[in-house]
Amino acid sequence: MASKYFSLFSLAFIVLLSLLFAHSISASDHTNKKNSSVEFLKHLQGCHKGDKVKGIFQLKKYLEQFGYLNYKIAKSRTHENDDDFDDLLESAVKTYQLNFHVQPSGVLDRKTLSRMAKPRCGIADIVNGTNLMQSTVKSHHHNGPYHFSFFPGRQRWPPARTQLTFAFLPGTRTDAMEPVAKAFQTWQANTHFRFSRVQDSRNARSVFLDVIMEMGPHSMGLVES
C-alpha cells in the first residue's frame, strides 16, 4: 500500500518542487531580466492594426514564442520581420486576450500589456494548433481553466503520513540543493508536513522523496529541464 501511495503522489511533490526550485534559483536576477525583456511593451499601448511602431517586431516574437503567431504557415510572410501591425498580429492579440480574459479588441490596451509584462512559464499556450488554455473542465467557482485530472478512484493522501524524508540522488547539482531545501522549509512552515533530509540516497527504505535534476519531454514534444 505504501508503494502505491508513493507512485501516485510523489509526482505531485516533484512537480511542485520543481516550480519552487525554479522560483528560488532565479530570484536574485529576476527583476533585471524582467525589466529588460518587456521594456518594449511600454511604447505599445494603444497600438492596433495598421500602425507601425518600434517594438512591434519584438511583440511578434513574444507571441510567436507562446504559440499565438506563426508566419511560417501563413499565406504571406511580408511583415514577419518588421514593425507593422498586420492582420496576423491582430488575430494573435485577440486570441491572447481571450485566453487571459481580456476584451478581445485586438488593440494593445493597458490590461493586455499588463498581462504580458507579468512573469510566466516558458511553455507555449498554443502547441501545434491546440490551444492548451481552453480547458473542457469548468467550474462555477473558478474564473479560469483547470489543467489537472484526478487519479483513478480519487485516492486520498494518508492522514497519518506527515513526516516525509528526502534525499538528493547522485548527479544532482550542488547549487540546486540549497534552494530545494529552502523550498521544503517553505512547505513545512505553511503546511502540517515535516521534511527531513537523508544524506545517503542509497538507503531506499528511509527515503520517501528522491530529488534529481533531469531533462526530458514536457508536453506535446517540448523539452523542459
From TrEMBL:
Signal peptide: 1-27
Transmembrane stretches, start-end: none
Cofactor details (free text): Binds 2 Zn(2+) ions per subunit.
Signal keyword on record: yes
Domain Peptidoglycan binding-like positions: 56-116
Cofactor(s) it depends on: Zn(2+)
Residues binding Zn(2+), per UniProt: C121
Keyword Cell membrane applies: no
Source superkingdom: Eukaryota
Alphabetical list of Gene3D superfamilies matching this protein: Collagenase (Catalytic Domain)
One Gene Ontology MF term: metalloendopeptidase activity
Keywords assigned by UniProt, alphabetized: Metal-binding, Signal, Zinc
Coiled coil, from the record: none
Any one GO BP annotation for this protein: extracellular matrix organization
Family matches, as InterPro entries: MetalloPept_cat_dom_sf, Pept_M10A, Peptidoglycan-bd-like, PGBD-like_sf
Record-linked PANTHER family: MATRIX METALLOPROTEINASE (PTHR10201), METALLOENDOPROTEINASE 2-MMP-LIKE (PTHR10201:SF213)
Protein name: Peptidoglycan binding-like domain-containing protein
Organism in which the protein naturally occurs: Dipteronia dyeriana
